[in-house]
Amino acid sequence: MNQDQQMRGKVCIVTGATSGIGKATALGLARQQATVALVARNRAKGEAVRQEIQSATGNQNVDVLLADLSSQASIRQLAGDITERYPQVHVLVNNAGVFMLKRRETVDGLEMTFAVNHLAPLLLTQLLLEKLRASAPARIVNVCSGAHTTGHINWQDLQLQQRYGVWRAYAQSKLAMLLCSYELAHRLEGEAVTVNCVHPGFVFTNMGMNNVGPRTQALAKLVLARLGTSPEKGARTSIYLATSPEVEHISGRYFVNCKPTASSPRSYDEAAQRRLWEESARLVHLPDALSATKK
Length: 295
Prior knowledge:
Layout: E1 11-15, H1 20-31, E2 35-40, H2 43-57, E3 62-66, H3 72-85, E4 91-94, H4 112-134, E5 138-143, H5 166-187, E6 193-199, H6 214-227, H7 231-243, E7 253-256, E8 259-261, H8 270-283, H9 288-291
Parallel strand pairs: 1-2, 1-4, 2-3, 4-5, 5-6, 6-7
Antiparallel strand pairs: 7-8
């Protein structure tokens, strides 16, 4: 099959798909003729991106699904909408993320960065896991960050109520995502559902821009545009992990520039992986049948 057509008939879900890396990932998947569901918070923005992708690719199989990933109720509704709309789901790209300059809590009373960057993808993945299994071979791609290398899991203060810092929160959330991605890969060993993480590089996106004033935004965009790579380059590894036959049977790895790379020593701590999985499952109220997925 022509490479440009290799994803025809495949259903791909992309969170955070209306800008930056997520939008570039969705565009790349649509170019390969996948059915792409754009998960967006704002309908107007989602529809505008959908039309842009359809026009650029000629692929009309691009949908918009609404969800606020800071709300567990909204994530559950999203999972229900996906399950109802699509007979199969072959790829889930957990791309959405936040970078909060000040500590904020979600409607569920959880620290926003930890909730959106880590708990949201974990919950959505678990709610869609049976659909992914039924669609196998299937792939889960978690967009992590090199920031995880400086991250620590603060077991006594996961919600950073005592000592919040923007980088501390972000790095912890990305390490948490990586730890639980490895744990899920262990639990799915022997199945045809893979779980891999990607570091997209230092990419210029709008993440975090809603937390600062117009002048700071303008300055930050100028600096980041000069230092960062483009969203299109940042999306390459996500698209590779979602589509390439080369990684069809590879799971539980961390990829940089389309190559498996060692993540931080902390991320390979199996006791921490299990402990965080159990604590995260409790925080998102997963039923035992989901949270105790067997290895």
